[in-house]
Amino acid sequence: xxxxxxxxxxxxxxxxxxxxxxxxxxxxxxxxxxxxxxxxxxxxxxxxxxxxxxxxxxxxxxxxxxxxxxxxxxxxxxxxxxxxxxxxxxxxxxxxxxxxxxxxxxxxxxxxxxxxxxxxxxxxxxxxxxxxxxxxxxxxxxxxxxxxxxxxxxxxxxxxxxxxxxxxxxxxxxxxxxxxxxxxxxxxxxxxxxxxxxxxxxxxxxxxxxxxxxxxxxxxxxxxxxxxxxxxxxxxxxxxxxxxxxxxxxxxxxxxxxxxxxxxxxxxxxxxxxxxxxxxxxxxxxxxxxxxxxxxxxxxxxxxxxxxxxxxxxxxxxxxxxxxxxxxxxxxxxxxxxxxxxxxxxxxxxxxxxxxxxxxxxxxxxxxxxxxxxxxxxxxxxxxxxxxxxxxxxxxxxxxxxxxxxxxxxxxxxxxxxxxxxxxxxxxxxxxxxxxxxxxxxxxxxxxxxxxxxxxx
Length: 457
Known about the structure:
By secondary structure, the chain is an alpha/beta fold. The protein is built from 15 helices and 16 strands. The protein has a domain at 22-162 and 389-396: Rossmann fold. A hairpin with a 2-residue loop joins strand 11 (331-337) and strand 12.
C-alpha cells in the first residue's frame, strides 16, 4: 500500500493546521511516563499489536502476559519487551488468563475481528478493563451486546480508533456542534489506498498448517475453513466476511467517527450501495455507499457517502480540497454545510476549515472566526494513555464501548448492505432489514462454541 499522504501533502496539512494539528503525536514521542502499576495482558500479538505494545510501555503499563494461538506471532512482541527487560508470561489460550484473573488488571485485544466480541465479553465479565482494536465487532448484534454490557459494567473500555485522541478531531467536533458550518447535510469519506483481496486457485483444499499454530482455535466462533497460507492468516483475514468486514470495517470506524460525534448521528434508516461486483463471500473494493439519516431535532437530514478502491468523489465536492492539494488525498473526511466546509484525513487529523465566502481552507485549531467557540471536550496526549489513566480512575475514555459501539453499529449496517448486495431499509432499534429475513444470520450469527467461555451474564 502506498503512503497515505505524500510528503508534499503531509507538509501542507501540517502548515494549514498551524503547528497544532499533529501535536499529540509530537508530544507523545517525548513523554517518559512513570509506571502506572496497571498490569496489562495482550491477546492477539500480530502486526497491529506491536504499536499498541510500544504505547502501553511508553505510558507506564506493566505488560505481564502475551497470548496468541500462533506461536510465531509471539516472537516480535517478545523481542520488543526483551529490550525493556520485561519477561511476560506466554500463552496460547486466553482461557488460561481467565483461570488466573488475579494476575492482571486489564487487557488489550488486537485479535482478528471475529474474536473481538467473545474476548471483550469474557474479560469484561471477569472484571477486567478492556482496550479493543477497531472495529469493535464483526456484526451489528455483537456491537449492540457489548454496548449494553458496557453500560452496566464497572470496567473501563476504549475502542482503538486512535484518531479520537487528536486535538483536531475534538476541535472539529466542537466547532461543528457550535454551528460554524451551518446546517450540515452531507459528508464524503474515502479510503483508496488498500490492496485487493488475495484468492488461491483452490480455496477448498487445505494447505499444511504451520507448526505451533492452532488453526481451529484461530477460526474460533466463525466457520472452520480450510487453511490457506497467506490467504486468511496472518494479514488478509479482514477481507473475508467470516472473519472481518473489509476496508469499510477497517477504516469506517476512523472515518465515520467525526460526523457521528459532531452531528449526533443515530442509526441510518436507508443504506444505498453501488458495487463493482457482488461481494457475498469476501469484501470487494470499488464501493460507493450512501447512508441516509433522518433529521435529529434541529439538525438537518444527513447523507454520509463512503468510497473505497477506485470509486472517485464528485469533482464539485472536492474543489476546496484540490485547491490545497495537487492530487486528491488517498483518505479523507469532508463535511459540507451551508455555512462552510471542513476536511480532515480519515483519522480526523490535520483538520482544516473554510467558512462561507472565504477563499480557502485553513487550520481548524487557529481559525480566527472560530476562536471564541469554547473548548468543551477534554484533550489527551495519547489514546492508549487516556485508557490507562482512566483504568486508574483518572478521567474517562473518549471512545468507550457504548460510544464506540454505536459508531460500530453504523459502520456494520453499511457493511451489511454491501454483503447483501443491495439497498436496504435499516431498522436500527430492532437491528433488522425491512423485507429481508435472510439478513438475520449476518446480524446475529450462530457461533461455534468449542473455544468460548460460558456467558456469565
